[in-house]
Design a protein that fits this description.
Elements lengths: L10 E5 L4 H12 L3 E6 L2 H13 L3 E6 L5 H15 L4 E4 L5 H4 L11 H29 L2 E6 L3 H4 L5 H20 L5 E8 L21 H12 L1 H4 L5 E5 L9
Parallel strand pairs: 1-2, 1-4, 2-3, 4-5, 5-6, 6-7
The chain binds nicotinamide-adenine-dinucleotide (NAD).
């Protein structure tokens, strides 16, 4: 079977859109016909990446946005609606472990509570804020797909970054809630649970049964499959483990 993805006429927002899987999803959605809004706190990078997509002849807009601030999040949703008319797809890719992103190695018993709050804000609150900003338009149009990102840290626990584990395990409940809210109204949601993905070289050292980390496209192609109604239209409320067998008890 040849799987052809076609997002012609659809509008997608990708958070964390300046790098990694958020950016790759945006690039592939744009190349498959979607108009894409890339949102990221890194303004210079997100503008550069959106321009690069446009130079390839596809449609993309970059916008600076801190997912922790609902006013900025809401402005991204409004921009998508004003410029492109609607929101069909939300790729909630923004996230990362606070221990890494804030360069904090203190044990949890000594950890600055501000770092813990930052991790919950970026990974959990930001995801919910974007869902809140986009879902009304999806429900009104009776069409939408929201992809959330969990992590194996949310499944196996992460003593080195408890806020990350907490936020990532919460993605299951959020995804099921959206799926229930959107049931019969054309709105679906799925959660992706990645093992190590080579969006940065450091992930190569994380053990998996397969014996390697994933290439970003291995995750993103699956995400696009879920987003395409022709292929993923029967899939909602589900979490999908793409971890190279990391969570197997013995390997
Ligand atoms: N890479 C992995 O191995 C891996 C494993 C498990 C889960 N995940 C999850 O997958 C998702 C994508 O991961 P990735 O490695 O592709 O991401 P990445 O680290 O390449 O990109 C994250 C992006 O989020 C942006 N960002 C950070 N704080 C922000 C804020 N406050 N507001 C807006 N943007 C902000 C960064 O500028 C960056 O561009 C994340 O949610 C991550 O937690 C990744």
């Amino acid at each position: 079977m040849i799987i052809e993805l076609d997002f012609t006429g659809q509008v997608a927002i990708c958070t964390g859109g300046a790098s990694g899987m958020g950016l790759l999803a945006g690039q592939k959605l744009a190349a498959s016909g979607a108009s894409v809004v890339l949102a990221d706190i890194d303004e210079e990078a997100v503008m550069r990446e959106a321009e690069a997509i446009r130079k390839h002849g596809f449609e993309a807009t970059g916008v600076a946005c801190d997912v922790r601030d609902f006013a900025q999040v809401d402005a991204v949703a409004k921009l998508a609606i004003e410029k492109y008319g609607k929101i069909d797809i939300l790729i909630n890719a923004c996230g990362g472990a606070s221990s890494r992103m804030r360069n904090c190695k203190d044990a949890f018993r000594d950890r600055d509570p501000e770092i813990i709050a930052w991790g919950l804000d970026v990974n959990l609150k930001g995801t919910l804020f974007f869902i809140r900003a986009c879902i009304g338009n999806m429900l009104d149009n009776k069409h939408g797909v929201i992809i959330n990102f969990g992590s194996v840290s949310g499944e196996e626990g992460s003593p080195g970054c408890m806020d990350y584990a907490a936020a990532k395990s919460a993605m299951h409940g959020i995804t099921k809630s959206i799926a229930t809210l959107g049931a019969g109204k054309g709105v679906r949601s799925c959660c992706i649970v990645p093992g190590p993905v080579l969006t940065r070289p450091g992930m190569a050292g994380m053990k998996t049964a397969i014996g390697r980390a994933a290439e970003p496209w291995e995750l993103v192609d699956f995400i696009l499959y879920l987003c395409d109604d022709k292929h993923g239209g029967f899939i909602t409320g589900s979490s999908h483990l793409l971890d190279g067998g990391r969570l197997l008890a013995q390997f």
